[in-house]
Amino acid sequence: MTTVMLVHGAWHQPSTWRELEEELRGRGYETVTPALPSAGADPTGDAHDDAAVIRAALDAIDGEVVVVAHSYGGIPVTEAAAGVERVIYLAAFVPDVGESMYTMLGMPQPADSSGLFPLPEDPRNALYADVADADAAVADLVGQTHASFATQVTRAVWHDVPSTYVVTDLDRSLSVEVQKELAKRAQDVRHLASSHSPHLSMPAELAKLIDEIVSAD
User: Is the pLDDT of residue 1 over 90?
Assistant: First the structure.
């Protein structure tokens, strides 16, 4: 049986995957949702710390694993997910060695990456534009370390691991133009007519797409 590991993005927690987990389990998959230490009520560390948590969770799984990385989650997954069957980047960052979120967005590395990184100015619109219960989703958001955004990765598993990029065509957070550039690093590109969080706005459709991707391998 294939296990699908779901890695959340910035300001989020594993609970963001609840609806998608139900859909995937209905299709016969096991799911694992690690909690990244860079996000939480009292977040700590950077993307390397997140990668260590992901690697430990992967090492505890028997059998085949497919990793789905959402948004920021693509950074520590790119560092950590060697040896998995496939990485699915869901509106996610896909860094190469030496890159961080800053450099992927064409910005210089910050001189100071201490403290927390603020939420988007209008998180409801940026993250959940087509989510029915967007207010509840916003209420679940937590702190995120600035250091996680500034981390430069030391390995890029997409050079060796099969990868798919899912572009969210109505995204108001990570622009479609940036996503399409990042998607050039994946072997396979798919599209969803959703905003930034299809696991909340269309979990059944996303589960179906994940199943199609996995079944094609």
Answer: no
CA distance 39 to 166: 23
Separation of alpha carbons 165 and 187, rounded Å: 8
Domain boundaries, the chain: 3-216
User: Mean pLDDT across the stretch 51-77?
Assistant: 98
Q: How far is CA 151 from CA 23, 47, 195, in A?
A: 33, 6, 26
Task: Indicate the CATH number of 3-216 among 3.40.50.1820, 3.30.230.10, 3.40.50.300, 3.90.226.10.
Answer: 3.40.50.1820
Instruction: Give residue-wise pLDDT tens across range 112-124.
Output: 999 999 999 999 9
SS3 129: coil
DSSP character at residue 133: T
pTM across the whole model: 0.98
13: CB partners within 8 A, 6+ apart: 35, 39, 40, 140, 142
